[in-house]
Design brief:
By secondary structure, the chain is mainly α. The protein has 2 domains: about 1-30; about 30-115, Orthogonal Bundle (Arc Repressor Mutant, subunit A), CATH 1.10.10.10. Helix content is about 55%, strand content about 10%. It has helices spanning about 15-30, 35-45, 50-55, 60-75, 95-110, 115; strands at about 50, 75-80, 85-90. A 3-stranded antiparallel sheet has the order 1-3-2. A hairpin with a 2-residue loop joins strand 2 (about 75-80) and strand 3. The longest helix is centred in the last third of the chain and has 18 residues, at about 95-110. The chain is globular, with a radius of gyration of 17 Å. The termini are far apart. This is Transcriptional regulator, ArsR family. GO terms for molecular function: DNA binding; DNA-binding transcription factor activity. Keywords: DNA-binding, Transcription, Transcription regulation.
Amino acid sequence: MTMDLTPASAGTDGLDEQVASRAAACLFRGMSDVSRVAILRHLLLGEHNVADLTQHLGLAQSTVSKHLACLRDCGLVESRPVGRASMFTLTHPEAVIDLLAAAERLLSLTGDAVTLCPNYGARKDPA
C-alpha cells in the first residue's frame, strides 16, 4: 500500500484518506517501541541473528525475539534459516533510512515538543 498525501488523493467520501491514515498509524505503532527502532537501526548495518542483537542491545533473548516477530509481522524485517538460528534483514533498508532521516528532520524542527508531549513523550519521573 502506498500513501499519497496530496489532497487530491482523497475520494469524495474520504475513504482513501482513511485507509492511508490507518495504514500509516499501523506502521508507526509497529515502530513505536524504542527497542524495535534500535533493532531497525542495527539491521541497517547488515543481517544479524537474535544472539547478535541481544548482545548489542543488552536485552533478553525473548524480548528481542518478540520485537523481531512484530517487525516481521509488519513486513519490516525478514529472516532466513542458518542452521538452528535465523538471520534477520530489513526488507526495505532504503525506505527505513528515508523514514528515520525524515523523523530526525521533524524532531529537529519540533525541538523538545515531542519528548515533552504529555501523552507520548519521555517521562522525567519513571512511575
